[in-house]
Amino acid sequence: MSDASPMAVLLMGYGSPSGAADLTGYLTDVLRGRPPSPAMVREYERRYAIIGGSPQNAILASLRTKLERRLARSGAGPRVYLGTKHWVPNIATVVPQMAADGVRRAVAVPLSPYASTWILEPYRATLAEGVRAARSPIEVELKAGWHLDPDLIGHWARSIRASLADLDDPTAWVHLSAHSLPKRFRDAGDPYPEILAETSQAIAAAAGLVRWGFTFQSAGNTTEPWLGPDITERMVEAKARGATAQLVASFGFVFDHLETLYDLDVEVRAFAERHGIAYHRVPMPNDADAIAAALARTVERPVAGERFPAGPA
């Protein structure tokens, strides 16, 4: 940006409760203001206790620091703020704080690489809310869709190859997995499935995979249909083809949280063991330097993103 007005970056993540005491408030926000049932709170308390709490907030803080340093590598770079969709610091309150700090222009980049309506719409809503609430004008430019970034693809390819080398089993099967989506979003034209297919093919090509397939995981426990096939179905199919050792690369996420540490490492692992399958998982990128590099490239790319006009009105 050539304008001399103060500019900053807003790194946006999903957000995670810091402890059991936060769960009711956190789940209420995820449910769009509807309080969770006591049974739901107890279930999430159980899950978080099993995984020892979510590392997400610490990972986000580390990535914020790494991104700020990378953007400043050739001199004084922009300040990088951190905002979350469902917890604190919330995006809708961070944007007004940025304006109060004198920021007039900001680039906002989500930690999900996928420019899906399902993923981006809540970020758009909270950004717009924050711009409206600001007491001085601030313009925010949303830059999303970094799923084919070479650092992201390269990191996954290297990690998968290293995990396969550790297994040393030529019959091993690789599952490239991502969070499922309610079918109604796809039916309404959300490009999420196509974006995931493109990303999984890029990772598989970069890693030189032959025995692999794409699958969904973590479908919601609701009455409406979600996209499949589920990873458990794919595991049974792979075993029938002779793969007793199976490797999961949950590329739909950037960092560890409940969907990897519980959904995969607890529930899917237990399913695999019941079916005589040796479960293995590729480590997540988390706060890897490659992710900071991909985020920096997204912030700096010359193509304009979606703009939220300066507020207040």
Structure in words:
There is one protein chain. The protein has 313 residues and is an alpha/beta fold. The protein folds into two domains: 7-147 and 289-311, 3-Layer(aba) Sandwich (Rossmann fold); 150-281, 3-Layer(aba) Sandwich (Rossmann fold), CATH 3.40.50.1400. The chain is built from twelve helices and nine strands. The protein has helices at residues 23-30, 38-51, 56-71, 91-100, 117-133, 150-167, 183-187, 192-207, 231-240, 258-261, 263-274, 289-300; strands at residues 7-13, 79-84, 105-110, 138-142, 173-179, 212-217, 245-249, 278-281, 306-311. The strands form two sheets. A five-stranded mixed beta sheet has the order 2-1-3-4-9, sandwiched between helices. Strands 6-5-7-8 form a four-stranded parallel beta sheet, with helices on both faces. β3 (105-110), α5 and β4 (138-142) form a beta-alpha-beta unit. α3 (56-71) packs across α12 (289-300) and α6 (150-167) packs across α8 (192-207). The longest helix is centred in the middle third of the chain and has 18 residues, at 150-167. The relative contact order is 0.16. The model has no long low-confidence stretch (mean pLDDT 94).
Q: Tell me what the CATH architecture of the largest domain is.
A: 3-Layer(aba) Sandwich
The first-to-last residue Cα distance is: 23 Å
Mean pLDDT equals 94
CATH class of the largest domain: Alpha Beta
Low-confidence stretches: none
Strand order in space, largest sheet: 2-1-3-4-9
Largest sheet: 5 strands, mixed
Shape field: globular
Q: How much of the residues is beta strand, in percent? A: 15-25%
Q: Radius of gyration from the CA trace?
A: 20 Å
Q: Tell me the total number of β-strands.
A: 9
Number of domains: 2
- Order of SSEs, N→C? EHHHEHEHEHEHHEHEHHEHE
How much helicity do the residues have?
A: 40-55%
CATH topology of the largest domain, which one? Rossmann fold
Number of helices: 12
Derived structural class: alpha/beta
